[in-house]
């Protein structure tokens, strides 16, 4: 029994963080005895390579069709599937069984994150062009894939909210065969470090500054409102991230003595160290199917303050494992941080609860066990 995982990008020695969460899955599958190879679907074809024990092939549509014609796989495993990627399979006389992971943009309608395109006419024109060139074709492709009876396709969604709020309304149907399985939050990468009461004064945010859905503007507004609190000077804020919005968003708070703006991408193996030094993770959001960075902070023992958006509440239980404000509600987020600062016992309880609970929901062994059940299911 052998399996072929097909995706849009994959780690290599030059890009070690490209879809690293998929690589961790492949490594876990191999540890459990599965024979798994990887195809990166690309027009920039290059020679095969071995990365961290995984055989990676780079193929376009014709090469993938040829490879599948002369090589037999028990199942094909797709991440970030699109109609071009699937075309090679469509041309096969006998089609293998298929598992499709749906993560986000490849299954959502174009206007889900409409606020990201309002900064300029150029951005809006570009997405409207893509609406006709990509989104409509992708939606029709997924609808056909979810309703056809000639092949065995199983779908995996990272959260129930992602399925019911984003994907189903876009595609217009719900597939018969699907599972809800979250992305992994690995306790080895994000180990729990017990917090002391003083940790609650150290607040951190690690977010991209590439689009408005990451809601870094809300982080800034929260800090500005906290400035009126008597304890403000006891707080420290470390904001990490990079992107075209970084300078304009952080400008209003850069002069605060207790705010440090780190304009940088943080490698994943350094995040744990940053988690250790903080107690509260300030992670507002306007769009999340799961909120993996929030979950990683929870695993490390940080108390996460975020928003009840999309799939976030499936992983953060309000007032038990974290605190969730309503969408764009700065005042609520300030109130919740105020509670944590004034009540160290609540902070310590939520910190411990968060780490335990998120591992029960998204721990490596939990997720891999469920995914293996789907992959090995006849």
From TrEMBL:
Keywords, in A-Z order: Transferase
UniProt cross-references to Pfam families, sorted A to Z: Glycos_transf_1
Protein's UniProt keywords contain Transferase: yes
A molecular function (GO) term: glycosyltransferase activity
Annotated SUPFAM superfamilies: UDP-Glycosyltransferase/glycogen phosphorylase (SSF53756)
InterPro entries: Glyco_trans_1, Glycosyltransferase_grp1
Domain annotation Glycosyl transferase family: ranges: 217-345
Signal peptide positions on this chain: none
Domain of life: Bacteria
PANTHER family linked to this entry: SULFOQUINOVOSYL TRANSFERASE SQD2
Protein name: Glycosyl transferase, group 1 family protein
Organism: Mammaliicoccus stepanovicii
